[in-house]
Design a protein that fits this description.
about 700 residues; alpha/beta; Rossmann fold; 4 domains; seven-stranded parallel sheet; 22 helices; disordered N terminus
Length: about 700
């Protein structure tokens, strides 16, 4: 992915008073600067903070100067936020990343239009803006991603929270570059503030005893403390004071042993990470995120001077064991900067380009459509099942929800059409299953509110497929129009059996799909032998009831009435016509076993490429299919695979011709069956929905894309 230079993409917001300099950089600044240097977004990532020094850690740093007269009546922290809002609104960043300041996040959310990532470097329960359950829930719902620097911090954030939004989070550890191996000196080194919370008193009492027993060893302390109370007085101990990051690492490179006996719950424990990367045998307390730094640190069973003394002594006495721990620590560094930088950039990619991080060989699909379970198998042969079979045959993990059945069985006085129960069930299934893709098929009961809730739970793609005709002045146009437009602006793609460009209205991100055949359904082979009867047609206006709708007018009756006068010596049947009951589902398939040829004729004015699923049931089972030329389906199904007619007289003429040319009829039907089932089967069509919606490289050759 190539990004244009000088396009503002990402803004990184440092905490107020965070020093972004080489000489006084803290953990947050080191995190930001090191990942910045390794990011593919570094030319488009601007870092905002308030640092007095002009020597900053990286380029693209933008200093927010404070104490201007304009803001003299508000606090400097509020001035900082106000100036940030002004700057961010001018630049229009696609992502704003806020580090360690939930209160700043809330203010930006209200005033700046962008995508947001919140980073936690410390205990969320100790920070203003995320102490309460309400505050943390609000953060979860409003940000696009939450990043924690340790599992411990994440667990603290989710204390007493529902974990259903856990998938909006990511753990990305502080990371380092691999250090070159250099010769070690007999140094035992402490790095950190020289106070009680960092366990400096524990270190003091242990190290004084060690130094008295081992005169060839030295102890070093790196750090300071403004209200100092703990001092170590020994000629083998040296205080180095506060050192910049580079100098600190150079000391650790030379040190045999490093000690981190913190009483405080360290959010992560960067010192321990850096010590292990420098090849130190490292001893830590078992507090906070310290156990996550390296698998080969020595963790104190009891965080006291006696236990620390014993562990240091073991390392001094047993040189072989010490070297083993040092080597294992170097090899077991899980937090390498370039790897974790890729993870951060991947999160950014997903947000900016609305991508998903997933294994595309097997994705999790929530398929919500009508599977007609309440009809006891009578309506088993439907497109819903075909596409479902296709998803599974492509190796995907599918959870199916039959929306109409749920509505039917969950009606109540307070939920007359079962919609409330349906949407509740969808959210619960989504939360537990955590799909990568939601596919809707005629799912009229799914509300926009539910769609928005799903998007908040997880970054997903949503598409819908729609089979019914969308012909202006055609059957059920107004109903179908509103059905398909309802979710149009809230989902990613719509797939139609009508050509989108020929519709009288616009549907965002819409694609044509053929009605899919399925090897489990299209099992007849009528093309291989002569059947009992010649020709048939079945009107389906009785729909699922399998009975004629009284008082309904179907213009196709005009065609059938004329056609039956023209079919001399042709053994034909018309169902759903002249008081002959319609045939549907398994009854339809049972009936067509006896016929050689069939008419594909949809309701309303012919529309480019549109056909009901009767087309696939005819041609996919080996019957010779007759199609109106006005549908232009010859571009989808070439003329060598089906018979195209201009008018009723032409249709009758061609039916009679093929009745008398059995070999030609059977070959054409056989070729058509083979062609359709090869290129327009459910495996291919279902994967097309996935490829287009997720923006993947085409898995198959999709013939209909070129028509």
């Amino acid at each position: 992915m190539i990004l244009k230079k000088n396009i503002h993409k990402i803004a990184t917001i440092l905490p107020y008073k965070e020093s972004y300099t080489h000489n006084s950089a803290s953990a947050v600044s080191l995190w930001v600067s090191e990942f910045f240097k390794n990011s593919k977004y570094k030319d488009n990532n601007f870092i905002y903070g308030n640092t007095k020094s002009r020597k900053h850690l990286t380029k693209n740093y933008k200093n927010i100067s404070l104490n201007s007269l304009k803001y003299r009546f508000i606090s400097t922290s509020n001035e900082y936020t106000a100036k940030l809002i002004n700057e961010l609104n001018k630049k229009k960043f696609q992502i704003i990343e806020v580090h360690n300041r939930p209160l700043v996040l809330f203010k930006l959310l209200d005033k700046v239009k962008s995508k947001f990532i919140m980073y936690y470097h410390n205990d969320p329960l100790s920070m203003s803006g995320s102490k309460t359950i309400k505050e943390r829930n609000e953060i979860l719902n409003k940000v696009d991603k939450l990043i924690f620097i340790s599992e411990w911090i994440k667990n603290r954030f989710f204390k007493d929270l529902d974990t259903k939004l856990l998938n909006k989070t990511e753990i990305i550890y502080p990371s380092i570059e691999k250090r070159n191996k250099i010769s070690k000196l007999n140094y035992i080194t402490f790095v950190g503030r020289l106070n009680y919370s960092k366990g400096y008193d524990i270190y003091k009492n242990a190290i004084l005893k060690i130094l008295e027993e081992h005169s060839n060893w030295k102890a070093l302390s790196i750090g300071d403390e403004s209200r100092r109370k703990i001092y170590i007085n020994h000629n083998q101990h040296k205080e180095l004071g506060f050192l910049n990051h580079k100098k600190t690492l150079s000391i650790l490179d030379k040190s045999e042993i490093a000690v981190v006996p913190s009483r405080w719950n360290e959010p992560f424990g960067r010192v321990a990470l850096e010590a292990t990367s420098c090849g130190c045998a490292t001893i830590t307390s078992n507090r906070g995120g310290l156990p996550e730094t390296n698998n080969h640190t020595i963790r104190l069973k009891y965080n006291d001077s006696k236990t620390l003394y014993e562990e240091i002594k073991k390392l001094i006495v047993n040189k072989r064991q010490r070297k083993k721990i040092q080597n294992l620590s170097r090899k077991n560094i899980n937090h390498i900067i370039y790897k974790n930088s890729q993870k951060i950039d991947s999160v950014r990619d997903n947000i900016i380009f609305n991508k998903l991080s997933l294994n595309t060989n097997q994705i999790k699909i929530l398929h919500i459509t009508n599977f007609n379970e309440r009809f006891d198998g009578r309506l088993h042969y439907n497109t819903s099942k075909r596409l479902n079979n296709g998803f599974i045959r492509n190796g995907h993990n599918v959870l199916s929800i039959s929306d109409r059945d749920i509505q039917h069985y969950n009606k109540s006085v307070t939920d007359l059409n079962g919609v409330k129960n349906l949407n509740k069930k969808i959210i619960n299934n989504f939360t537990n299953f955590k799909p990568d893709l939601v596919v809707l098929g005629h799912a009229d009961g799914v509300t926009i509110d539910t769609i928005n809730k799903l998007k908040k739970i997880k970054n997903i793609k949503i598409c819908q497929w729609f089979l019914d005709p969308l012909i202006k002045l055609g059957p059920d146009f107004e109903k179908n129009f509103h059905r398909i437009k309802y979710l149009d602006k809230h989902i990613d793609n719509t797939f139609l059996t009508s050509t989108p460009s020929k519709l009288n209205f616009k549907i965002d991100s819409s694609y044509f799909i053929p009605n899919p055949s399925d090897i489990s359904f299209e099992t007849l082979n009528n093309s291989f032998k002569k059947q009992k009867k010649d020709f048939f047609f079945a009107m389906s206006h009785g729909v699922h009831r399998g009975i004629l709708k009284k008082g309904k007018i179907d213009n196709r009756e005009i065609i059938l009435k004329k056609l039956e006068t023209l079919l001399k010596n042709v053994n034909f049947d018309f169902f759903g016509y002249k008081n002959r009951e319609p045939i549907w589902a398994d009854n339809f398939l049972e009936t067509i076993k006896d016929y050689d040829m069939a008419l594909n004729l949809s309701r309303g004015k012919p529309l480019k490429y549109y056909s009901s699923d009767r087309l696939v049931q005819i041609i996919g089972n080996g019957l010779l299919c007759f199609i109106d030329t006005k549908t232009q389906l010859d571009k989808l199904i070439p003329k060598q695979y089906a018979v195209y007619y201009e008018n009723i007289n032409d249709l009758a003429k061609k039916i009679i011709f093929f009745k008398n040319k059995i070999k030609k009829m059977k070959k054409k039907a056989r070729d058509g069956q083979k062609f359709y089932n090869l290129y327009y089967n459910s495996t291919i069509v279902s994967q097309y929905l996935i490829d287009k919606t997720l923006g993947l490289k085409n898995k198959y050759k999709y013939l209909w894309e070129n028509i």
